[in-house]
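Lab manual, section 2.4: Encoding a predicted structure.

Procedure: take the sequence of the chain (371 residues), apply the prediction step described in section 2.3, and record the output as structure tokens. A sample record is shown.
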Amino acid sequence: MLEAIAAAGSTTRPAIAKATGLSKPTVSQAVRRLLETGLIAENGDVRGNTGRVPIAYAIQPSVGFVVAIDVGGSSVRVSCADLYGESHAEVRAETRTGEEALPVQLVELVHEVLAKAGLAESSLLAIGVAAPGVVDPVTQLVSLAPNIFVRDGFDLTRSLREVFTTRVYVENNVNMAAVGEKWRGLGRAVDTFAFVGIGAGIGMGLIHNDQLWRGSNGAAGEISFLPLAEDPLDTRHRVRGGLEDQTGAATLLAMARQNRGWQEHPPRGVAEIFLRAEDGDPAAQALVKAAGNWIGLAIASICAVVDPGLVVLGGGIGANLRVREMVQGVVESLIPYPPRIETTELGEAVSLYGATSVALSMAREFLAAKA
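Recorded output:
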């Protein structure tokens, strides 16, 4: 019921019954309990119908707040939101990588964002964390995360749990991006879709029948390990995967520096490669075309197995319009039922949206248990 009320913003008992499938007497009894505990409040009457005027109810935003954290190899972004998911404050800092520095930094940034929002620690109900690497769905330990320099099986959120004594959940950042797209993005009306992030790394988050698909080890969507590379059996691909070694940002830049055909000096960053390609630079266009072809092959492979209705592209490389056009061309040439391919409209905050959504679900579950 709390999820239904939050989704509607303001709603009536008949509407709650319809949304949840619960009987009207059950809804009425639960509404009384939620009113008594102060979790919801009357929010005016709903006009426009004949007969008895129904009362609308809404969640009390001041009941508590959640924090979302997006850990990247270069920066950490932290947001504080109310129970409707509206952000009240946000902070950002350069990532302190490593097993000792990073957990301490996460605690510091949560303190900072709460202070910025003017909130007490006691109002914090849950923390959602988006992190690179594979996250074990049972133990919550992080592995295969070389971007943040932690060992396999690392407990990234232990300090957060100890300091704030609240519910904390960590999930792979691309999985969180898929959750964010489902909550506030292009996936809201799609039951099966994939979010593919291409930037410093490459990964996929899959929503199947409206649920995040994690796999047995939490490694579903680690498409960087698809055997798509010039030499897929090269043992060097065991660290980051053949596809990432072939098309990741570091590879594009390395190839750019090796290329002697630049009209001027080699590009200093991936964004500059795309800008030069748009300006008609042949060397840049060749790099972008090669990356688009490899990514297109990867997405075609995904489509052959999953058959998603939508593929959302994000990340520094994936969000580029030229890449999307190339990927779409490759997929349409290979797959008899190609999906719609779009670029995320949530930008670089997409994983933060997912972390907020997960934290809100934990917070509402906790509050419902107290009612």
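Check your result against the sample. Residues 2-59 form a domain with the Arc Repressor Mutant, subunit A fold (CATH 1.10.10.10).
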